[in-house]
User: Fold Alcohol dehydrogenase 1-like from Pogona vitticeps.
Amino acid sequence: MATAGKVIKCKAAIIWEAGKTPSVEEVEVAPPRSGEIRVKIVATGICRTDDHVLKGFFPNISYPVIAGHEGAGIVESVGPGVTCVKPGDKVIPLCLPQCGECDCCLSPKTNYCLKNHFQGSFQNWMPDKTNRFTCRGKQVYHFLWTSTFSEYTVLPEASIVKISDEAPLDKVCLFGCAFPTGYGAAINTAKVEPGSTCAIFGLGGIGLSVVIGCKTAGASRIIGVDINKSKFAKAKELGATECIAPQDFKKPINEVLMEMTGLGVDYAFEAIGRIDTEATALSSCHAGHGVCVLIGEPPAGSQLSITPIQLISGRKLTGCLVGGWKLKDALPKLVSDYMNKKFNTDTLITHVLPFEKIGEGFELLQTGKSIRCVLLF
Ligand code: APR
Ligand code: ZN
Ligand code: ZN
Assistant:
């Protein structure tokens, strides 16, 4: 392409400091270096994790930063040595890399690639500790090596996967985070069985993707829990059999769930990111064999307090990142399953806005009005 090897000027949403709304400005995006790929982002969702960056919940993040990790796009150019994709390929940036070489990538037991962005000493520049973005003469930091809130972004080879040429990018951007995160928590981490009883705390984009996973796995009871009752209709449409709001009961919601199920749920999922609801999710599980899966991200430094007998009795507490998928291996198949209508993720997209309206998109998320708002460049 004519732009290969050159700096590209384009629009991006810069978060200049924690607590500030993102401002859409012109940035310069340097060409990809060795082992890197520059991608033209076509569509990106807004996830609660991006809102955490906005609010400053991750103390190790340096600002100014370009957030965004739920995107889909087209390869513009590749740096020396890149073999996994070529210009013109449709791709999804991976918010958890798969380097293929580290101890975890070589193990079938985990997807926690050790070349990830938050391993050891956290840093939010590129793996070689330099940045590809500048704005108004200042270096701008990357986020998760994805930074999909920029029309062009640069990714390391471990953080990209090619998908089908026919994939609709304005829809499959959700495969960058929400859908595999929730769906995989049910399918891979909990391994929900037919006939089981599940409770999902938080019915946002991630919790609703858990609902899809539980339904696909054949769960017979799928109970949604959310303080925002406007989420219930969609949850039921996707497979929830019942939905409850904690504020409607005098008793704690774990006691309500115990009464509803007799002995507690087989599987509980926390897709909010609060330690109080994490503790409640665990307490809602069957004492002998219930499994509680943590998905949401509480503010950094949070401590979860549990009573050992809760686990000694046989409950299990676990968690997963991006649904436990090794993303390079899994995403092309998940996208083709979507295209073959194995599941319908389109219904998670409640709003579509031009990229310039990213501030409005965040507001929709913050006020609980959207499930997923997709921004189009
Ligand atoms: N009890 C029950 N539900 C709650 C509570 C609570 N105390 N607090 C918030 N919720 C609900 C919200 O009403 C909302 O429907 O949790 C849902 C969270 O959904 P989103 O904000 O859309 O978040 P989502 O993008 O789905 O991410 C969920 O996973 O990846 C992480 O950082 C992310 O921690 C976040 C979580
Ligand atoms: Zn996310
Ligand atoms: Zn790895």
